[in-house]
Amino acid sequence: MKRFLFLLVLINSTLFISCNDDDESEYADYIVATPLLVNKAELRASVTVTAPIPTETSGKIYAYNDYIFINEKYKGVHIIDNSNPENPSKIGFITIPGNVDISVKDNFLYADSVVDLVVLDISNSDEIKEVNRLENALPNNVVWPIAEIYEYAQVDYENQYIIGWETKIERRKIEEVGGPDIFLEADAIANQSGGNTGQGGSLARFKIVDEYLYAVDSHNINVFNISNLNAPEKLNPIYAGFDIETIFNKGDYLYLGSMQGMFIYNLNDPAMPSYVSEFRHGTACDPVVVDDNYAYVTLRGGNFCGATESGLYIVDLANIEAPELKVMYPMDEPYGLGIKGNQLFICDGASGLKVYDTSRVPDLPQLNHFKDIVTFDVIPLEEQLLMVGDGVLYQYTYTANNIKLLSEFRLN
User: Fold this and answer.
1) C-alpha dihedral (182, 286, 214, 98), degrees to nearest 10
2) What's the angle, vertex CA 228, arms to CA 226 and CA 234, rounded to 5?
């Protein structure tokens, strides 16, 4: 009897293990993107200015006069008084749901709020106010993360907007995930309905050039005439391709960084930027900055960006109609970068801030390396360098062929 019971237990255990093995083979790990939502009515009644709040996720950085604006991803903008760079201070927070980018000219701040373009008067930092809103001016503005599953079935498109995404890896049953058409389904809903300007970093999607604001989404250059600063006029968008991520201006050209490469547009007619040329590379996250002779393109592999390797591409612009790769240098996980004179600054993620001498390209000697800090975005100003990363604002002063730390300000 005991032997019979033992055999039953053994058979059941074997069957259990076998079933588990079979079940396990039916599952796989997937990158799942869950939308962050906002009610449409709340979106257009929620731009407010409050006292400073803690920083949870610091995003892009923007400098204007004595102020530094730091994006709190999808939530709004922190305002920092930087009149004393050795001792900056938070003075307020602008709540802008769905905000990722800003740009400023002559005390008017332009910000994205999901599909809307919002205009704020910041001439008095104690009385910042919304003065205009162009509803649905940025219809394709939601940035789609790289994922294999987009869980948008619960979205009420009549009453809600997607303001951003949260991504994580989950184990799902393979037969329930379906095939590659999930990308097509996701894409099908993507279409939900020269004065005193500031300076953004290389990760910016907004750029003011003279009397025009250019705002890129994943497909287009959205063009606004801002000659009347508090009443921008939306012009026809320029289709630019797929996976556009950043915009940079140098002289009469716009340089677009995308996951496919760098695209160059001229501004002979600033109301209608026209395609000039492109430099293609493998799929990767890709900002770009430019000097008089070269474009510097960082590619970040891993982290859902597509490529497996990271590096700095130096592209020769001697023939603007046929940009040519000059050399590639390996990097660890580069994000933003900036250039001033012959100094190139690269935020190499957890590997810190790296400073290079560009005077002898293709040779690129390293001038300095600030280690043991996490870096994200950088802006080279005339008198100091601003950098943000891991909840800290760093400021550096320039020295002969070098820089040194001026201040370190914790944002939270």
Assistant:
1) 50
2) 45
Neighbours of 57 (CB within 10 A): 10
- To which H or E segment does residue 21 belong? helix 2-25
Query: Over 90: is that where the pLDDT of 284 sits?
Result: no
Banded pLDDT at 143 (limits 50, 70, 90): low
- Contact assessment for residue 140 and residue 219, using Cβ atoms and an 8 Å cutoff: yes
Question: Do residues 52 and 90 lie in contact, with contact meaning Cβ atoms separated by under 8 Å?
Answer: yes
Find residue 37's DSSP bridge partners: 162
Tens of pLDDT, residue by residue over 50-75, are 999 988 877 889 999 999 999 998 89
Q: For 354, what's the count of Cα atoms within 13 Å in the CB-facing half-sphere?
A: 23
- Residue 270 backbone dihedrals phi, psi, to 5 degrees: -60, -20
23 token code pair: 């079940």
- Provide the token pair at 39: 């009610």
Q: pLDDT grade, residue 11 (50/70/90)?
A: very low
Structural domain spans, the chain: 27-202
In the chain, the amino acid numbered 370 is: F
What are the backbone angles phi and psi of residue 119, rounded to the nearest 5°? -115, 125
DSSP of 350-387: GG-EEEEE-TTTT---EEEEE-SS---EEEE-SSEEEE
d(CA 98, CA 111): 10
Phi, psi for residue 47 in degrees, rounded to 5: -75, 110
List the one residue out of 81, 62, 82 whose CA is nearest residue 72. Answer: 62
